[in-house]
Amino acid sequence: MNPENQLLDPHQWVKAHADYLYAYTIKRIDDTELARDLVQETFLAALEKVKNFEGRSSERTWLTAILKNKIIDVYRKKSARLAKEVQQAEHEQQDFFEDDGHWSPGHRPLSFGIEQVDPLVNKEFNTILQKCMQKLPALWMAVFTMKHIDDEETTVICSELKVSPANFWVIIHRTKLNLRACLQRNWGENL
Amino acid sequence: MSYLKKVQYNCKKATFLIEKKMADRITFREHIELRIHLMGCSVCKLYGKQSRIINDMVQQLWQSSMPDQVRLDDDFKKELQERIEEELNKK
Questions:
Q1: pLDDT by residue (tens digit) across B29-42?
Q2: Residue B81 near chain A (CB below 8 Å)
Q3: For residue A8, what is the domain's CATH number?
Q4: A188 touches chain B (CB under 8 A)
Q5: Full domain range(s) for residue B62
Q6: Which 3-state string (H, E, C) describes chain A?
Q7: To the nearest whole angstrom, how far is the Cα of B47 from the nearest Cα of chain A?
Q8: Contact with chain A for residue B85, Cβ under 8 A
Q9: ipTM of the modeled complex
Q10: What does the pLDDT read at residue B36?
């Protein structure tokens, strides 16, 4: 047995990492059943790979990498519906803008106090932000989080999710337009 | 419409470039177009400011959120560890 393998201790895996991996999944895939399955699959897949572990990363990092690939598989399956979602996005975008590219009157951004919000203390704002994010199509959220949270290269995201660069940018643009409008609608009322 | 007018009036394009610039980079030409547009368009300027704030907030929410609330229930964890032990014993 490779001495580095001593760094892995499957007897403690669930205790040490299950909640962490579950939270990691839930943030990316808003589906508790599926998230539980993915955590379980991750541990089982990891058992198969124990002998490949080279000890170059921590146990948790190594498990997370396995989980991440499983999450991307889920995203990928969802992107089968992509063409339709992008079409819908472009259609709905006409609501935001007039034919000549001007903001349409009802959707023009207004100052709604977001500058004054301290999200670390304002739970109410965070709740609204979370709700606005949950309303977005899963694939948009996947694209958005891979870009803005995981800081992945655009080319990597496009190839992993099998999205064309043009569609990638439509999704990034559309996601932000939607999030912003949703926050203005729901937070603006509190002023 | 002249080229310049098109740039000045196209908020759809301008907000697109704002997003692209924030996520990656834009070309020199796009950069100039965006600047020309923003000089004359306070609405898109506001959009850009809000958009950056939203990015920060999503990141903060992401990093801080839910470590306590999101947990697997103990029964599931117990079964899961048993399953792992079972696999270990097979080897």
A1: 999 999 999 999 99
A2: yes
A3: 1.10.1740.10
A4: no
A5: 3-90
A6: CCHHHHHCCHHHHHHHHHHHHHHHHHHHCCCHHHHHHHHHHHHHHHHHHHHHCCCCCCHHHHHHHHHHHHHHHHHHHHHHHHHHHHHHHHHHHHHHECCCCCECHHHCCCCCCHHHCCCCCCHHHHHHHHHHHHCCCHHHHHHHHHHHCCCCCHHHHHHHHCCCHHHHHHHHHHHHHHHHHHHHHHHHHHC
A7: 6
A8: yes
A9: 0.81
A10: 93
